[in-house]
Amino acid sequence: MNIQSAINKELFIPRDERMLVAVEVRRRKRKRMSSLLPGAKGDYTTFICVSVTNTRPHQLLITKVKRFGGSSSFTRRSQWTVEQLRQVNGINPNKDSPEFDLVFDNAVDQWVASSSAEKCIFVQILYHACQTYWEGKAGSLGKAGKLGKVGRKGKPSQHAHEELGAGPSDSSPGPASKTLRARRKSHVPPRKAEFINCQSKLTGDACTMNLVIYRCKAFLNRMKNMMVTNQRSSGRGQPGQRATGSTVGNVVQRVNVSLGERGDRLTRAEDKTVELMHKAHQFADTAHK
Fold it and tell me: What is the 3-state secondary structure of the chain?
């Protein structure tokens, strides 16, 4: 069982939530050691997780999870709703980088992911999860607005019937109309978080292939790290094993480079497609004139 499955099984499934993605991170600027749990001594691993509740209305949540050294269990540290998320900063819009910032109503976190691919997967899934959540939220608000309009349609005839035998003192709105107005005011469209300095291939529509490429690169990075760890733990003085590990590492490196080149070609193709669509729209506008 990988780490993401373990986190989902231990922390989210018991709370009737479904984890969408988790990324291992470390802070770009370390906090003071006094803020850590007693006895932790800074030996811990941090994960940022995105989850959604299974019950309706669905809630999109961002959770900070930690696993302290010497322990196999995970600890839920902080949690925010997507309404509290104000900004996602990808730091560099021109190339893959592991740095990103999350800005909430009451906190600003500056993170470095374990790899650029892991960060890109996280940002891409978070962006599309936010889009789906906001679209569903807007749809529910639209239904509430239609119900309010239907409730107001029967009122003119009712007021006209009352005015036949009522004086000027009956012009004040009744409790039902006040309730409707209060209900309409309560349905305020949610403030959407802005995604800045993020590559277009992470926030665009044609990004399924990019997600597959990033998953492959993340998998290869994990394999490479595991092989490096195994080489260090196996000790020195075994040239045959070092040669084998070096050969496998070179293969992983070549596959990683080829995946990166594939991703660059896809990005250039997407940019070219957008440019051609823009020129086609310009030509169509000129032809209509």
Answer: CCHHHHHHHHHHHHHCEEEEEEEEEEECCCCCHHHCCCCCCCCEEEEEEEEEECCCCCCEEEEEEEEECCCCCCEEEEEEEHHHEEEEECCCCCCCCCEEEEEECCCEEEEEECCHHHHHHHHHHHHHHHHHHHHHHHHHHHHHHHHHHHHHHCHHHHHHHHHCCCCHHHHCCCHHHHHHHHHHHHCCCCCCCEEECCCHHHHCCCCHHHHHHHHHHHHHHHHHHHHHHHHHHCCCCCHHHHHHHHHHHHHHHHHHHHHHHHHHHHHHHHHHHHHHHHHHHHHHHHHHC
